[in-house]
Design a protein that fits this description.
- The chain contains nine helices and four strands, in the order βαβαββααααααα.
- The chain has two domains: about 100 residues, Glutaredoxin (3-Layer(aba) Sandwich); about 100 residues, Up-down Bundle (Glutathione S-transferase Yfyf (Class Pi), Chain A, domain 2), CATH 1.20.1050.
- Strands 2-1-3-4 form a four-stranded mixed β-sheet, with helices on one face.
- The protein is an alpha+beta fold.
- The longest helix has 30 residues.
- The radius of gyration is 18 Å and the shape is globular.
- GO terms for molecular function: glutathione transferase activity.
- Its EC number is 2.5.1.18.
- Belongs to the GST superfamily. Alpha family.
Length: about 220
């Protein structure tokens, strides 16, 4: 029996959430270890398991993987979610990088001071509706297929549905001008593994709250 991947991170979304999404979409069960104290984090560094003294950390296939992009690339390749050839992989990489740029704004939002939140929310809305979502709306409309690349479910589709739902939590009507993305969201949300991940009680984490922010700041405090 194969050993489940083990994920070490905070009990919240952060940089581990796309990893959880990818594994869940691939139908892979995993275990989680949550960082709650600075001592836990320092022990990981002392034990030499964090190559760059950073989490997330994913233990899979006898390896201790760090750096989110490397982790995601490995999982996508392992579970046949990374295209059929180099050209498809390049497209997936471009789409994923674009989505990651948008998600970076979501990632840092909970850590912004109260007086900056409204401005940062406006920036997220502007970037989503003017720069990122129009790209995927156009791609889906032009090729008329269900998925972004090669008419096959891939890492890019998983990253996009995660981003759509994350932005919608903050700006509920953000897809109002994007009919292709509305249909895409419905299709992806009804795929069995994703539907399961979206149900209560799944490993999907809720939006970051004050407790999550405080824990992260406490662990990384100099």
């Amino acid at each position: 029996m194969s050993v489940k991947p083990k994920l070490t991170y905070f009990n919240g979304r952060g940089r581990m959430e796309p990893v959880r999404w990818l594994l869940a979409a691939a139908g892979v069960e995993f275990e989680e270890v949550f960082l709650e104290t600075k001592e836990q984090y320092e022990k990981l560094i002392k034990d030499g398991v964090l190559m760059f003294q950073q989490v997330p950390l994913v233990e899979i296939d006898g390896m201790k993987l760090v750096q989110t992009r490397a982790i995601l690339s490995y999982i996508a390749g392992k579970y046949n979610l990374y295209g059929k050839d180099l050209k498809e992989r390049a497209l997936i990489d471009m789409y994923v990088e674009g989505i990651t740029d948008l998600m970076q704004m979501i990632l840092v939002f909970p850590f912004s001071p109260p007086e900056a939140k409204e401005k940062n929310l406006d920036s997220i809305k502007e970037r989503a509706t003017d720069r990122y979502f129009p790209v995927f709306e156009k791609v889906l409309k032009q090729h008329g297929q269900d998925f972004l690349v090669g008419n096959k479910f891939s890492w890019a589709d998983i990253q996009l549905i995660e981003a759509i739902l994350a932005v919608e939590e903050k700006i509920p009507a953000v897809l109002s001008g994007f009919p292709q993305l509305q249909a895409f969201k419905k299709r992806m949300s009804n795929m069995p593994t994703i539907k399961k991940f979206l149900q209560p009680g799944s490993p999907r984490k809720p939006p970051p709250d004050e407790c999550y922010v405080e824990t992260v700041l406490k662990v990384f405090k100099k």
